[in-house]
Write a structure and sequence with these properties.
By secondary structure, the protein is α+β, with helices and mostly antiparallel strands. It is 41% helix and 24% strand. It has a domain at 142-271 and 319-413: 4-Layer Sandwich (Phosphatase 2c, domain 1). Mean pLDDT is 82; it is low at 1-15, 57-62, 85-89 and 91-98. This is PPM-type phosphatase domain-containing protein.
């Protein structure tokens, strides 16, 4: 085998070190030549690819559809008309890729934020709307009181009235009708007590507590007697868009409302002994409800409260302040309460008065009587007219005339 290739190949064992090194260097040069040849060939191929790519560019450009510059110009002019094109456009926020877990967390945070935002209910919005309208409403009022007549001479007037304005939206009106030997002292005392409490507590006026406190204080004072003397008490509070009425006795208050016709809303109802609930309380406390009786036995006059088997106290109402003896047999000093939401531009006026008005004039008659004065914005004229007509009615039906007190309150709305 060695002779076939001549001197080119020899057994490894017979080669010298110099021959081995020479052969390795020759092989290394041969490998380098082969690598250079491969590089040049690859460069030639890439040059040919570049040439072909460059040649294909014009053809591709020929297929590209160029935009309509005139159309773009018109769109730009239309979009920038009326705006300042010198302003820099807002920076575009970088698009953030949020994975499903992050997106869910973000939605939960937004939901929590929406829940934390206070949302006004429909009722709150309606109240706010009424309060805004109420600010455009002007309240005017007038009060007048007239002493009665006993058939011989003018009586001492035992009625008292009170009108208070706390601010533009808060008012108080009170009518008191005293009775008994010290009726005028009782009504005067209660008026001063009411005035003090209203000025101090009108924002949170507790009708039942204040009425009861006044009754208890009056029992302890010694300036006048209240065993057989007392008074009615009807209190009206105008607070924002609400009318509050608390009362004991038969001094009455009405609200007149106009939709198409005049209608009357009773803010109070007279506390009379014959009413079923009042009668039951009185009888349970040992009292008797009956009228006066003539010698013939015939009943006459209104129902009254009597002690069992006695001819006293004969009180013609089932609730009052004072009247200590009557209170021991069921006459109550706890007021009844009523709240009415005002209807803007429909609620016109309130009439508050002692029973000297209502004895012969009913609610609708008073409403019709006052309305012409309302249209003329004349509460004083309305008050005088009520008292004038009440006196005339007493003269037509009785020899005597009761004390008469009226308060007229007008609600005037600005356009």
């Amino acid at each position: 085998m060695f002779n076939k290739f001549g001197q080119q190949l020899r057994p490894l064992g017979n080669r010298s070190s110099s021959e081995t090194k020479k052969e390795q260097s020759n092989q290394k040069q041969h490998i380098q030549i082969i690598q250079k040849r491969q590089r040049s060939e690859s460069r030639g191929d890439s040059n040919e690819e570049q040439k072909s790519l460059i040649q294909s560019v014009p053809a591709q450009r020929a297929n590209v559809r160029l935009p309509d510059l005139n159309k773009s110009k018109k769109q730009i002019e239309k979009s920038t008309s009326g705006s300042d094109i010198t302003k820099k456009p807002p920076l575009l926020k970088s698009r953030i890729i949020i994975d499903s877990k992050q997106r869910q967390q973000q939605q939960q945070q937004q939901h929590a934020l929406y829940q934390s935002i206070p949302i006004k209910s429909q009722k709150e919005e309606s109240i706010q709307h009424l309060q805004q309208q109420r600010q455009k409403m002007k309240i005017s009022y007038f009060s007048q009181s007239r002493p009665g007549f006993d058939g011989i001479s003018e009586k001492t007037n035992q009625d008292r009235e009170l009108c208070l304005q706390f601010d533009d939206n808060n008012y108080a009106f009170v009518v008191l009708d005293g009775h008994g030997m010290d009726g005028e002292h009782v009504s005067s005392y209660v008026k001063e007590q009411m005035k003090y409490n209203l000025n101090k507590f009108y924002k949170v006026f507790d009708f039942q507590k204040i009425f009861s406190d006044i009754h208890q204080k009056m029992k302890l004072q010694t300036e006048f007697g209240c065993q057989f003397s007392g008074t009615t008490a009807t209190v009206i509070l105008l607070k924002e868009n609400i009318i509050q009425c608390g009362w004991v006795g038969d001094s009455r208050a009405i609200l007149v409302r106009k939709n198409q016709d005049l209608s009357v809303i009773e803010l109070s109802t007279d506390h009379k002994p014959h009413l079923e609930g009042e009668r039951q309380r009185i009888e349970q406390c040992g009292g008797v409800v009956d009228t006066y009786h003539l010698p013939s036995g015939a009943p006459i006059g209104p129902s009254r409260v009597w002690a069992k088997g006695a001819q006293f106290p004969g009180l013609a109402m089932s609730r009052s302040l004072g009247d200590v003896v009557a209170a021991s047999i069921g006459v109550s000093q706890i007021p009844e309460l009523k709240l009415v939401d005002m209807v803007n531009k429909e609620d016109l006026f309130i009439v508050l008065g002692s029973d000297g008005i209502w004895e012969f004039l009913d609610n609708q008659t008073i409403a019709d009587m006052v309305y012409p004065f309302y249209t003329k914005k004349d509460p004083q004229g309305a008050c005088q007219k009520i008292i004038q007509e009440a006196v005339a009615a007493w003269k037509a039906h009785s020899e005597g005339i009761d004390d008469i007190t009226a308060i007229v309150i007008f609600f005037q709305y600005e356009l």
